[in-house]
Amino acid sequence: MDKTISIDKAIDYIKDGMTIMIGGFLGCGNPHRLIDALVEKNVKDLTLICNDTGFPEIGVGKLIVNKQVKRLIATHIGTNPETGNQMNSGEMEVILVPQGTLAEQIRAKGAGLGGILTPTGVGTIVEEGKEKIEIEGKEYLLELPIGADIALVHGDTIDKYGNIVYYGATRNFNHLMATAADLVIAEAEKIVEVGEIDPNHVVTPGIFIDYIVHGGGTHG
Amino acid sequence: MDRNQIREFIAKRVAKEIKDGYVVNLGIGLPTVVANFVPEGINAFFQSENGFIGLGPAPEEGQEDPYIVNAGAQCVTILPGGVFFDSADSFSIIRGGHVDITVLGALQVDEKGNLASWMIPGKMVPGMGGAMDLVTGAKKVIIAMEHTVKGNHKILKECNLPLTAVGKVDLIVTEMGVIEVGDSGLILKEINPEYKVEEVQQATEAHLLIDANLKEMKV
Prior knowledge:
The complex is a heterodimer.
Chain A: H1 7-12, E1 19-22, H2 32-41, E2 46-49, H3 61-65, E3 69-74, H4 81-88, E4 93-96, H5 99-110, E5 116-118, E6 132-135, E7 138-143, E8 148-159, E9 164-165, H6 174-177, E10 181-192, E11 211-214
Parallel strand pairs in A: 1-2, 1-8, 2-3, 3-4, 8-10, 10-11
Antiparallel strand pairs in A: 5-7, 6-7, 8-9
Chain B: H1 3-15, E1 23-26, H2 30-33, E2 45-48, E3 52-56, E4 77-84, H3 87-95, E5 101-104, E6 108-110, E7 115-116, H4 131-137, E8 140-144, E9 148-149, E10 152-153, E11 155-156, E12 171-173, E13 177-182, E14 185-191, H5 197-202, E15 208-216
Parallel strand pairs in B: 1-2, 1-5, 5-8, 6-11, 8-12, 14-15
Antiparallel strand pairs in B: 2-3, 3-4, 6-7, 9-10, 12-13, 13-14
Helix pairs in contact in B: 3-4
């Protein structure tokens, strides 16, 4: 089995109006080639789930600048002024979520859980509209799972089954998102044959990955 | 003191709170400077919420690795014994009470230990990032900031901006002094000898209780 496909073919799966999640943290560990191809294809009206909107010229920030996102779920948008502009003008709906909550919501979806209880956000505007549950005298917010039609993730070395080894601080949301979408496309710095990766080093099992595309970056 | 000296002074004082073996998370901006002043003989583990423990100093020129960056996207290094992990593990560490100290900036902090740091409605909405989890989960929350902004109070009776967390701040360190958040209000524990107690109170909207053993703020 070889899950490798071309970037063009991968991007064909993404249609107007879809919900997509993209791994990465301020550009680090973003699937940059897939993002560039998405900008080129100019898919519109996306619901985008990601940690942050990067910078205008870096990472998922390009999708914002190109006005492809209708609804954004993220933890931090301060490094990309364009996100704030589109939020203030009403062009884009922005839902801000605490980072640890977003991670657990995505993990919950991938793990088949009905939600998670977190103390984060209690007493703040984050709790608005959410169920509060008291456990052993402490209040928690019920946060629901978040999944997507498609996840675009980034790995360092990926074998042809899709087993992923990460490098440096690129793991962030990539591993979680790979578990939480109907279709998962992984961009590899380097694609290797099955058996070349020591099973002890794999972080994301290949069963989560549908397709692999070649990114080819600094460590490729 | 000019602005840089003020920031350095605050960072140096905050650094004295770090004990050997502590797991520490530093926010972006002034808090990041704290890492430069960890007292000699103290080994702390710096955690970065984008996914690692063992954050080292900035790399030498030419040695930068774009995949080893802090939560502010600045190139850093990872020390021997350091580890990388994903965002769920990162926030298990943070929310689960495994961080001994988090140092953050603030827009406002009040006498009940409430913190506002992530948005000014209609003006500036950077988002909370990891701050809400850090403030909720860390064993000790230290706010490191300039005492006032453009002459306006930042230490208030009650925050009027959207909160980051309720009642979680333990200590406030500014260029004027060190203030502890106690059950009955804010207690001035240390004062920068350049200021008088009345001046610190004037620069603070909340009422300050003066510690019986008020000390000189030393860095």
